[in-house]
Input
Amino acid sequence: MFRKIFTIISITLLVASVTLAQTGRIMGKVVDQQSGEPLIGANVLIVGTNFGAATDVNGNFIITQVSPGEYSLKASYIGYQDVVMRGIRISGGLTTEVNFRLPSTAIATKEIVIVSQRPIIEKSATNAVRIVNSEDLQALPVRTIGDYIGLQAGVVRQDGLTYIRGSRPDETGYVLEGAD
Output
């Protein structure tokens, strides 16, 4: 029984070592061409495959489990020109070093205009929120802020007094933009 388990484990380890020995690694560094500073978060991809890596804080990258063969590597970073290196040979069980020096480019784009819009429903509000701008106030048939407040839900104006949600006039207070 022990001999069978030992044989199975030995064969498994042998197959795994042969399989892992048939792949290689690519490692290197991506830096700015002019200053030599490392580019943090630059993308390095093996063209035509799903393999790639991003650089660390020192500009270093490692791509593992690459099948032996000849590949092209592409390094890209925002604000820099993409650089492609062709004819990179990968051998099984070995590490190939590839370093990139990316030239910077001036990014020229057209003007982008973003217009924000208020959502219809404010998900974070825990109570009823009403936002009124000056155009809304000008369109209403009111002369004073008191008249406008009288138009709101739960507010009653009677005999020159304002009752909010059934309260008495002396219990009511409202603030508009920090002014009483």
About this structure: The two ends are 91 Å apart (CA to CA). The helical segments are 2-21, 134-139, 145-150.
